[in-house]
Amino acid sequence: MTHDEDAVVQAPPPAVTPQEAAAIARELFAVDGEARSLGSNQDLNFVLRGAGEPTLLKIANPDTTAAELEAQSRAARIVGDTTSIRVPLARELTDGGTVRPVEVAGQTMHARLLDFLEGRTLSGSGYLPPRSVRAMGRLAADFDIALADFADPGAERASQWDLRRTPSVMAELLPSIDDPALRARLETALSAAWRAVEGVADDLPLQVIHGDLTDDNVVAGDARTRIPDGVIDLGDLNRSWRVGELAITLSSLLHHDGVDLVAALEAARAYHDRARLTAAEADAVWPLVVARAVVLVASAHHVLRTDPGNDYAAENLVHEQAILEAATAVPLAVAGRLVRTALGFPARVLALPSGHGSLVRDAAAATTLDLSAASPLLDEGRWLAPDIEATLTAAALRDGGIVLTRFGEARLTRSRPHSLDAPANVATGVDVTVDAPTDLVAPWDGDLAATADGWELRAPGLQLRVTGSDPVRGDGPIRRGATIASLRGTARVAVSAADVDPPAFVTAALRDAWRAAIADPTPLLIGEERPSPDEDAAELLARRAATLAGVQEHYFDAPPVIARGWREHLVDTDGRVYLDTLNNVTSIGHAHPRLVEAIAAQWRLINTNSRFHYPAIVEFAERLAALLPDGLDRVFLVNSGSEAVDLALRLAQAHTGRPDIVALREAYHGWTYLADAVSTSVADNPHALATRPPWVHTVAAPNTYRGAHSDDPSAYARDAVTEVDRLAAEGTPPGAFIAESIAGNSGGIVFPDGYLSAVYAAVRSHGGVAVADEVQVGYGRLGEWFWGFEQQGVVPDIVAVAKAMGNGHPLGAVITSREIAESYRTSGYFFSSAGGSPVSSVAGMTVLDVIRDEHLQENARDVGAYLKGRIEQLAQRHPLIGTVHGFGLYLGPELVRDPATREPAGEEAAAISERLRLLGVIAQPTGDHGNVLKIKPPLCITRESADALVDALDRVLTTGW
Questions:
Q1: What is the mean pLDDT of residues 457-462?
Q2: 624 near 779, Cβ under 8 Å?
Q3: Which of 106, 349, 734, 800 could form an S-S bond across to 644 if both were Cys, CB 3.0 to 4.6 Å?
Q4: What is the pTM of this model?
Q5: Dihedral over alpha carbons 799, 805, 810, 812 (to 10 degrees)
């Protein structure tokens, strides 16, 4: 195809081999180097690597003029000079230009030599995190701002990628599509989109834009963060609608794993923050995304028909079809409201006709069924029963009248565990059930039409759809108040825009957007709305920040609002079900019915402070003591792990008369004074080691995977013993040595065999005592052992325990010998108001009952071993997993950037945790390097949930974070 102002679709260029490209570079630009071809639909690109910096030889399509290329060179220079964006600058030649003609296969083409931008593009279908998506929007905005006043005749060009020319471009491309169904689909999608564009086209600002600022044409200098900071390939530079730039950028995001319409609009927000869009542009942006998607698919078919060997085009077609699917996933009205809301513009809501009548003649009293995440009707896992909605409706109907569901409610009954995607559980209509035949009448004048499963009442711009009820009259006009049907049983009622067929349920993320195309039909049934009580997560977070101390932190930057828990699952207010792999506090599972009933029953009797005399505190203390080795038979009951550790250390100091304590580095024991004093993790307190009291002495964490003695783990014990002996020789023998029995705060790191035995013996030889912090790792979590110290084959002098004891109820304990317990009297008497209260004691005993009766320690052993094995299998394919620490259900996959150097992958662990949350798994990193995923779920976790965790982790490691 020769250059033709009226023909905007370019023909493929003639082929050029890498050897020929190297020769062209040498002849035209005096550059020597080995050439490697880079893919392109219409140009020829070769990276040249030789003695100096790599360069890019760009041979333009024969239809591209030298003037157009010089405009691209000048535009790149302006962007490079006025912004922080990295751009490939063209090498200026002796005549001041940047373009040289070259003959290829009898055709005159034009070549330039450009800087080659190092880094990685965002190409492919892998996951793009929100930070990368937002950066794309900022890049597009900054590029457009830089060129806002740029004018050049070479930018006034006829291009198939100029969205203004979409109809004429499609007229040329559509004949290349052999599939009539696909051709019809593209025509239909473009027709609707273009009608929307034409309505605002005259108000859309024009300027020179990049024209192809996509994931393929941005470069991230830091491959770890994947934040793009460079823009390449200005080959589609042209003067067009400014908003077209944003539409092109948005469309390029839609084929990436995890990037849907809602996620992609983070780029639109970022663009709008930099370069304010007009209301007309906001209305045009998504129709132009659709137009871009249509052109991409059609163009790929055209290229493959004219250039069948173009592997680049064939590969991209898969992505472009995914873009089309995502761009047209919701009606334009829905996408438009989402865009307007995201950008802060007022957005239309579909409303019922003013002065409408009732759909139900002589409506009886109505009961609204609560199917939300917090509904008491769904307690004890009833939401998982497949027929629960029908069961609850039948129960509510026994009182007579009408039973309604809520419009716009996120129904927990429509959610399921182990889903990687947010559920489509928000009702776009209302289910109405009657106990006796009830007449349904027309609430407004309209046209009646029977459907396969009910009927529709149509009015200008609006339709009422009822399914589950057959009309008693034929199709045609009908007046308000006329009888349409007699309802028996249940029907679904929905109101939507006339040209929209909404699904019965949508995701919570699209709930508000769908209000552009659907209306609440509840007033047609009972004369008023009964909205679902929604909790705005961002507003609640702002209230939290305004009230709670800033140091009282929360998980995740944008945390979900948790409404309920069940077994090893958490549920947010949108009905999203998360697998809880983090909660070692909830040992027997969330909302365990036995625990709920036991606490409620005791509270109905009495709950008071522990100085009163009652059976529960005695029975609970007896049972705790029975779980410990002989001699550890005196129990103190407190409210938390911090209190337990603090009390354990006070006992040690009182018993030995010595303040000095030896603690492990990289450990966390609590926030009270003594517990904090021996907490040495710099992840929890960056100044932990520098601010320790002088009576706290630290020894190295005995880490067998990394650290000073990872090649000789037995040396850790020798060093610790040497330190204990040194302290004694200097006149400050330690009164106590404290350690978790397994390094839980570090991610479940198991100590070398004999470590605790050696250190305990050294401390005791100088008159000190050994304190075992079992707050995190004890109580059956390790599977093979009820207590962590059993794994090391030792018996401590004092044991501190909490967390799992109360399954979320505040409960902790210190168990020691009678002799050590009596030593406390030198400090006065001990009293804890709520520690060991009747309710706390009953909670503690019930947890022990459930662990025993439901064989949860055995489950920790079996499922934990299965889970560890599966993660280790995953590590064979994903070298980011360096090792898997721990036992049972206290596991810690450690992430490393290099298996050889074991460089900690802390940033990756944080990002992976965030991506896992988006896939329905709650996880967090731990350890001083923040590179260990702490896996410590409720002990009732199943193999199915273990598989769900590994599958989600596999997806993250495969597609990105």
A1: 94
A2: no
A3: 800
A4: 0.94
A5: -10
